[in-house]
Amino acid sequence: MRTVLVIDDNPAVGTALDVLLGLNDIRALIATSPTQGLEMLAREAVDLVIQDMNFSADTTSGEEGIELYRAIRRDHSDLPIILLTAWTRLETAVELVKAGAGDYLGKPWDDNKLLATVENLLELSEATRAVSRFRDERRRRRRQLDERFDLRGIVFASSGMERVVELACQVARADVPVLITGPNGAGKERIAEIVQANSARAKGAFITVNCGALPSELIEAELFGAEPGAYTGAANRAREGRFEAADGGTLFLDEIGNLPLAGQMKLLRILETGQFERLGSSKTRTVSVRVISATNADLPSLIREGQFREDLFYRLNVIELRLPPLAERTDDILPLAEYFLQNRAALDAGARAALIAHAWPGNVRELKNAIDRASLLCSNGEITARDLALGPARSPAVRLAPDAEPDKDMIEAALLRARGVISQAASSLGLSRQALYRRMEKMGIET
């Protein structure tokens, strides 16, 4: 049951609030002095505090209320507090609200207004606690991953990336092919490195081939090697292929969708038997290589068009790791930006909002380039939105996951996208207008 602690030296105030809150299924605890109130806070689970500002007879300065407020805040930084004022100067209550108090109400109060304020703050308090629990659990899982696996220094904070990294670590020990899918620049090679680093082949070579960066006539020679004179322009000595170089280790084939059909046939054979021949040679060679492939292409569509072998697809796709684009993992944007900055400069509030609002079609690679550029152009070591020069904000807006709570950066980014229109910003965040207003007031966000 929701619990409110009332701290007021007037027993009539405690009784009135006890009845009023009880009629609305809210449990009230009554304390008649600051000391008693702090003792109750130490032993009871309290969701909200309603405190008076004066406790001594003939005292109207509000100093006692300020001292009590600060004492509560020292041990309960997120606990919502409503101030009850009678004789205290209004400026004192306003200053405390600016310092983090939930609201202030004058005596005598309006029951409907007080109840509305209590309900709003209880709702916000529960949301804040849920977010805190969610983030604590996420940090706990991240610590466990760091302790159990070699994550190769990867930076992430989103649930989407956590699932991908965790799955990559889980499948690493199974010596089977892995297919990593996702857009260009999202970090597919880093995920491949994590699989390699946590596999039984961790001490073996990790060889990378970008199948999209080589002419089709050279890919086979690159992968399987070639004998002298095997093709026009071939060297006068035998050439070792990447499979031989990766023997005992891992071969990462990026942009696998660009592999020509002849190369696909040879790749299928080596995956099935570990055997191949160099170009221009009839000698069969055998290697032990784990293949991790990656693509941003729609391989099923290429299969339907006859450009990719279906049997090879199923051979490569024993385990698929889908890497989401950066636009779907907004929690990763600011940690990645800070990582790329390496303390060269600081991001101001406008820059942080602009980073969150941007669509990032170039994903992590685009983010790194934007940060590198802005760190060179900024003045006095502070990066602004103008330094980033990111262009129009994303459209449509990315909505929050059901278990997520918008932080200050996300709310400012939503307001930036909506040009200050509260209803549009609230809709993009999956909130009501009233809920967004409450969060803006608590976080000190102005339009």
Please give a handful of descriptors for the protein shown.
Rossmann fold; single chain; five-stranded parallel beta sheet; about 450 residues; 14 strands; alpha/beta; Helicase, Ruva Protein, domain 3; elongated
Describe the protein's architecture and organization:
The chain is of the alpha/beta class. The chain has three domains: 3-128, Rossmann fold; 152-324, P-loop containing nucleotide triphosphate hydrolases (Rossmann fold, 3-Layer(aba) Sandwich), CATH 3.40.50; 327-443, Helicase, Ruva Protein, domain 3 (Orthogonal Bundle), CATH 1.10.8. Helices cover 47% and strands 13% of the residues. The chain is built from 19 helices and 14 strands. Strands 2-1-3-4-5 form a five-stranded parallel β-sheet, sandwiched between helices. The protein has a five-stranded parallel β-sheet with strand order 7-8-11-6-12. The chain is elongated, with a radius of gyration of 31 Å. Residues 395-399 have low confidence and may be disordered.
